[in-house]
Design goal:
InterPro entries: ABC2_TM, ABC_2_transport, Nod_factor_ABC_transporter. With 238 residues, this protein is mainly α. It has helices spanning 2-15, 17-36, 46-76, 79-84, 90-118, 128-150, 155-172, 186-189, 194-206, 214-234. The longest helix is centred in the N-terminal third of the chain and has 31 residues, at 46-76.
């Protein structure tokens, strides 16, 4: 049952046009553009510094924005209510969606990595395994935030709010530009946003072959726990 539900959820994400735009087209376009156009003072090859931020963007797009919008409209059309009336246990429904999101993130990571390699990416090999763990942690944290937004509000509001938050986290979270290049207080705030924390941690392991540090991990855990605990109380099936 879990395998079947995971397969269905994965296909629904992959086949959705807006999801494809968020999960692959925009991240690939930004990866190529930011690596080839000289914006900001980055060491060569620029793709080494850009790739961790694009990976964080891909996770945010799939686990937060995509899931929030999908959940909001699933509630609108009674999908969750109908599924909850079947023989599928609730944990299977939840786990299937989580595993599907992780599979899509894995697909994103592979596609983006291949693209980055063609652009001259040379990651620290010792950071690949910790990088996978960070992607999983980031997916769970952003997924909890996506459930919080998509599980309590009307679909129209979810659509507008999820996209607005995506832009805010892109610009203020150190993804469009490195956190050090952001003006004034934004440079400090970026590290306490989940997008900035994930980008900082991935940069540490993939570029500098170092430990991600305690702050980014704690920030991701705090966002995940806070959003998840709130979502448990506010999420509605319809």
């Amino acid at each position: 049952m879990l395998a079947a539900q995971t397969r269905i959820e994965t296909l629904l994400i992959v086949r959705h046009g807006e999801q494809a735009l968020l999960t692959l087209i925009i991240p690939i376009a930004l990866l190529i553009g930011m690596s080839t156009i000289h914006i900001g003072d980055l060491p060569e090859p620029r793709v080494n510094s850009v790739m961790p931020r694009i990976l964080a963007l891909a996770v945010m797009s799939t686990a937060f924005t995509g899931q929030a919008i999908a959940l909001g409209f699933d509630r609108r059309y009674g999908v969750l209510k109908r599924l909850s009336a079947t023989a599928l246990p609730r944990w299977t429904l939840i786990s299937g969606r989580v595993l599907a999101t992780l599979l899509v993130v894995a697909l994103q990571a592979v596609v983006l990595s291949v693209t980055a390699l063609f652009l001259g990416w040379s990651p620290a090999l010792t950071g690949l395994l910790p990088g996978i763990g960070l992607l999983v942690l980031g997916t769970l944290a952003f997924g909890a935030a996506g459930v919080l937004v998509g599980g309590a509000l009307r679909p129209e509001i979810v659509l507008a709010l999820a996209n607005a938050i995506w832009f805010v986290l892109l610009l203020a979270g150190g993804l469009a530009l490195p956190a050090d290049d952001l003006p004034g207080p934004l440079a400090v705030i970026a590290g306490f946003l989940p997008s900035g924390a994930l980008a900082e941690a991935l940069d540490a392991v993939l570029v500098h072959s170092a430990l991600p540090g305690a702050q980014p991990i704690l920030v991701l855990l705090a966002w995940g726990v806070a959003c998840g605990a709130t979502a448990l109380r506010t999420t509605r099936l319809t």
